[in-house]
Amino acid sequence: MKIAIAGAGYVGLVTGVCLADFGHDVVCIDKDQDRIDALERGEIPIYEPGLAELVASNVGAGRLSFTTDLRAAVGAAEVVFIAVGTPSRRGDGHADLSYVYDAAREIAASVEGFTVVVTKSTVPVGTGDEVARIIAAARPDADVAVVSNPEFLREGAAIDDFKRPDRIVVGLEDERARPVMAEVYRPLYLNQAPLMFTNRRTAELIKYAANAFLAMKVTFINEVADLCEAAGADVQQVARGMGLDNRIGSKFLHAGPGYGGSCFPKDTQALIRIGQDFDSPMRLVETTVAVNNQRRQAMAGRVIAACGGDVRGKTIGVLGLTFKPNTDDMREAASIDIIEGLQAAGARVIAYDPQGMRAARDLLEGVEFGDSAYDVATGADALVLVTEWNEFRSLDLDRVHGLMKVPVLVDLRNVYRHDEVAKHGFHYSSIGRPAGLSAIGGAAEAAE
Ligand SMILES: NC(=O)c1ccc[n+]([C@@H]2O[C@H](COP(=O)([O-])OP(=O)(O)OC[C@H]3O[C@@H](n4cnc5c(N)ncnc54)[C@H](O)[C@@H]3O)[C@@H](O)[C@H]2O)c1
Q: How far is the CA of 181 from the centre of ligand 1 (A)?
């Protein structure tokens, strides 16, 4: 099939390259000339494991190309995906749909013959109706079916998620789009991935409901972690005990500094606004957002407490800046709040991240950057593990201890165990695991 994709960001690029890998003929379009120039030179603008190789092989096979010329690409396509950003609108938290609507207008001007226009961006209920209206108003003669096909990929595992999805959701109002979408995803369907057809509004809501539920799950375990600290219980074992129940599941039950990233913060905000618009308030989601915001603000305080209540003039080393490992995405990363809180309390911050430092330099003022975890540890009064990159999981703790001025380790991802770290002479604090208890947990798990 001939497929055009408007927006060559995280989702557009991954969608484009995977669809090309299925054998379709794909053109990725972006307004950003630098991005397209880089892609044409074979440079990938984001860090995503496996993406560069897959782009290279599909470009080489002649199935994938890049352009800023939407008109030609859309004119030739049977299916056009909209994969542009839908950030939070400044001030009110609504999803900013201006990029989606601009793309719809541009697509309307260029479609030829029957074309399925697919919204892959995460958009509020009713956006598909508006996209259809925009296209019909701009081009009354256009023969278009507007479909919702939300994307569930996770950054850091995006290609695998796209190629082995738990489900593919397709919301449509025009039955002619059904066989077209089935053909787009045929290789996945053959692999038994459930292809779920709904009406358009249902598909739009599935995406927000899923993300809000996951954000709520993370926030739930974070609150339980605080309770564990107060009550002398171990949150990792509570999470394990909960997660082994199939009705609950073990994923997204890792206590930490609060969720961030390019999706959860904006999608929870947007769902709250959608609920208000429909006079059907999403109270659990409202509370989730409030609890998460509070938690993120509170994390710097934990570090300050671990440093004896004062960080003025002290050097704090930060390990990990991106909102999660295996991505260079810094959008709404917890590290931003933590670092700003530490700086406001008078600390000097030196940070290291395997992939996120380029983006971080534009976002964080007054932060110094190190070349490695050991560089950041050198002379530090405390080390804070914020993002659980693999390379931080097996640090040479003796070496780190030897480099630091004061051996304080604040582990906001529960990567280490109290007994293990204490053996190397650190003052250690983590999330929801009072000192001494993790030793018991570790022994029990090792015995299994
Ligand atoms: N990033 C994720 O993990 C993820 C996962 C699932 C869903 N989503 C959703 O997918 C959508 C895209 O997210 P993203 O992270 O890929 O965004 P992104 O910011 O990485 O990419 C968006 C791209 O669209 C381009 N663009 C904007 N208007 C355009 C136009 N009219 N024509 C052509 N290109 C245009 C921009 O230049 C940019 O490169 C959002 O709605 C997001 O919520 C994201």
A: 21
Distance 323 CA to ligand 1 centre (A): 17
Active site annotation includes 263: yes
Per DSSP, the residues of 208-254 read HHHHHHHHHHHHHHHHHHHHHHHHT--HHHHHHHHHTSTTT-STT--
Residue 231 makes CB contacts below 8 A (sequence gap 6+) with none
Say whether pLDDT at 90 is over 90.
no
Decide if pLDDT at 20 tops 80. Answer: yes
C-alpha distances in angstroms, 362 versus 38, 154, 167, 265, 331? 20, 24, 36, 20, 11
Best residue among 47, 68, 84 to mutate for probing ligand 1, ranked by most atoms within 8 Å of CB: 84
| Interval between CA 267 and ligand 1 midpoint (Å) | 14
| Separation CA 3–CA 27 (nearest Å) | 6
Determine the atom of ligand 1 nearest the C-alpha atom of 150: 7
Residue whose structure tokens are 């004896």: 308
pTM over 0.90: yes
User: What are 51's two structure tokens?
Assistant: 């993406």
With a pLDDT cut of 90, the percent of the chain lying above it is: 94
Q: Could you tell me which residues are beta bridge partners of residue 80?
A: 4, 117
CB of 30 closer than 6 A to ligand 1? yes
Q: Is the CB of 83 under 6 A from ligand 1?
A: yes
Q: Ligand 1 centroid vs 30 CA: distance in angstroms?
A: 10
Which member of 18, 28, 228, 263 is catalytic?
Answer: 263
pLDDT digits (tens, 9 = 90+) for 120-177: 999 999 999 999 999 999 999 999 999 999 999 999 999 999 999 999 999 999 999 9
Ligand 1 atom at shortest distance from the alpha carbon of 29:
33
pLDDT in tens, 382-402: 999 999 999 999 999 999 999
The ligand 1 atom at the shortest distance from the C-alpha of residue 95 is: 41
Once rounded to an integer, what is the mean pLDDT over residues 20-46? 97
* Ligand 1 in reach of 84 Cβ (< 6 A): yes
pLDDT for position 446: 32
Inter-helix orientation angle 200-231/264-277, to 10°: 120
Cβ atoms of 11 and 153 closer than 8 Å: yes
